[in-house]
Design a protein that fits this description.
- The protein is of the alpha+beta class.
- The chain starts with a helix and ends in a 5-residue tail after the last helix.
- It is 38% helix and 24% strand.
- Helix 1 crosses helix 2.
- The chain is globular and about 45 Å long.
Length: 138
Amino acid sequence: MELNQISGVVIDAARKVHSALGPDLLEHIYRACLAYELRQRGLKVQEEVAAPIVYGSMKPDGAYRMDLAVEDSVIVELKAIEKLAPIHKVQLLSYLRLSGKTLGLILNFNVVHLREGIWRVVNQFEPASSASSASPAV
């Protein structure tokens, strides 16, 4: 299944969860229900995925945790807040960059209509081999 198909299934499943539960619940409730719904649809889902941060040759203590990883390719960050802010996109972009993933979704369930709480974030990730062969900017 390609990235756009996976993200479409995630959004459809999130709409179903939001329609059933409504807004104003805690984030972990939406995470558990969305993970359940995605598994019912046959997708591989990991919750609270820890990923180490590597800086140079060291790995600082503590890992960041992604809310959901779907099919080992799409990161889903869930929110249950009044309004999404630009820092939420930056956070997800960092997760994408550090994990080497290309596509992520931010889903804010604390909205009247879920379509108002969906942000799609794309990382223009380049493999190391193509990045190292690029000419330096002058």
